Amino acid sequence: MLIFKKNIYQPPSESNSPTATSEQLDPYSFLLSALMADRELFMSLKQLEGQDDRDRLSTLFPHATNFGSAVVLNTISKRLLEALVHPDDWYQMNAYHFCYLYDCLYSLMEEYSYENGEERLNLLPSLNSEDIDFEGFILDYFYDTAFLMDQDRFNDLTAKDKASKMFSDPCLFGVINKLIPAENEIQLQIVMNEPYQ
What we know:
It contains 10 helices and 4 strands, in the order βαααβααβαααααβ. It is mainly alpha-helical. The chain has one domain (21-191). The protein has a two-stranded parallel sheet with strand order 1-3. The two termini are 15 Å apart.
């Protein structure tokens, strides 16, 4: 189970808003649909081996392709999906994972936005074809989006500025500076204690 700012395994609340706020949108289903779509994408890329995946991937993962090749992003995707559906352990993510998930979810949201009512129902049935409040979802479930910060701006921050909780993830430097993650940075970390007590 993946740890977010809010527990994605709790059922969403009911509301009658014209857009699917993060309270209406089932976060687990949203994440599962996005990661499943990515698994299909990476399977199709494997069949097209030898062709340049970079351009195709940079359209779908504009931030994550700054640090990861198809192999790296496929590994991150696979590990996130496995952890999402694994009911026995809680997993802590780092900036590499959150950056990948941001692109992954944005891609699904964009696809959903361009579809008609019936196709929308197929993609995310719980939304009843309503619009997604993506920014609201990110604000509710992501701790921050520091991983989207411009490289020069981040590197110009003072040590005092970087002492903020927003910049406490040790992998953030690597994401922003487009460094390929090491194997231990791709791994999700098991958390022994219940994170939502």
